[in-house]
Input
Amino acid sequence: MSAPGRLTIVGSGLAGSLLALELVERGLAVTLIDAEEATATAFSYGGVAWWAGAPGPLGPLLRQAPARWRRLQERHGPLGWRRCGLRLHGGGWGSSQLRPPFAQVDTAVLMAALPRVLAAAGVERRRGRVMAPPQPVAAGWQLELESGDPLLAEQVVLAAGAGCRFLAPALPVRLRASWAGVLAQPIRAPLSTASASPWLRHAARRRIVQPRHWQRPALEAAAPGLEEERWIVDAGFAPWGEGLLLGQISLVRPGLDSGEPPPAAAMEEHLRQGLTGLDPLLAALPGPFRQVPVAFCSNGLPLAGPLPGAAGLWVFSGFGGAFAQVPVLAPVLADVIAGVADPGGLARFGVLPG
Ligand SMILES: Cc1cc2nc3c(=O)[nH]c(=O)nc-3n(C[C@H](O)[C@H](O)[C@H](O)COP(=O)(O)OP(=O)(O)OC[C@H]3O[C@@H](n4cnc5c(N)ncnc54)[C@H](O)[C@@H]3O)c2cc1C
Output
């Protein structure tokens, strides 16, 4: 049983990890607990579209994301942040080679660095699944773990991605979950900057390739009105350590839960068909196919703040553009949790769950 007085974060993906780093910097004792099964962060392109905006005042805040990543790297060492080229294809713009500024957090580098970075910062990490919503007790909150041990914490932050709904069923209905699938190519295929395929040349130069008309945001916005499941393929890829992530297929179901994983063979076939439209050579790369549940909010505004009527219980999830939103919102939420800022600082961004 952990000592009360500590703050426990459920989920050590991007959201839980960056929030933990902010909280220990403010003097809090933090435990991160994670089932270490399906982490969206591990298979993410990590694109940082700081210029792409978000509804309301959150949009301008996102422009600070590059500076936040640079600061994180100055403090903690390499986390995979780098400026990178982006090439957009399709959409009848006359050019298949639009070149907006872009940056990436290489998630293979990030996931490899996080255990060392969190340990060095003094964050306690535990492996374990939380089996039920947190229960209020005199000292704060009690978490029921799969191992049977209870875990006591004065405060709890739910940063469990698609697992948040299970842990707090009353979270706002805008929080939903999808399935996202990629071919996770661990070793870069023999790529050459002299390849006949322009896309393989971009891959060799470590550029991200995406469709000009990205369908995933529209699918997320349509989620509340869906009467049957719908999938789309946004054909493209991103560098991933020494390899490539080729994707991405996204599937959204009616209702608030991601449900069981969709049939992997059918999802992989749909994805490969979508990649064939871009370049058959990409579609022929071996994989393996991996799919993970991804939390999102249907109005594009994540959830960050205290749960109403549950003192000491917080949520940090449902991002649309997590690699721009998390690094700028984590310090704001950490200030509120540490008691040095008012929740009004979060309210102005429209992210409070109440
Ligand atoms: C293919 C793909 C491409 C993407 N591309 C981009 C992109 O270019 N730019 C961008 O900004 N975003 C992108 N995203 C989205 C982004 O990766 C996610 O929004 C983000 O990583 C979510 O981070 P998170 O920490 O909230 O959740 P996660 O990374 O899913 O972490 C949640 C953690 O909680 C744990 N957990 C859940 N339930 C429990 C429980 N009951 N007990 C204990 N632990 C639990 C899980 O094991 C998991 O490790 C992409 C996602 C995918 C899959």
Observations:
- The first helix runs from residue 14 to 25.
- The two ends are 31 Å apart (CA to CA).
- The longest strand covers residues 175-185.
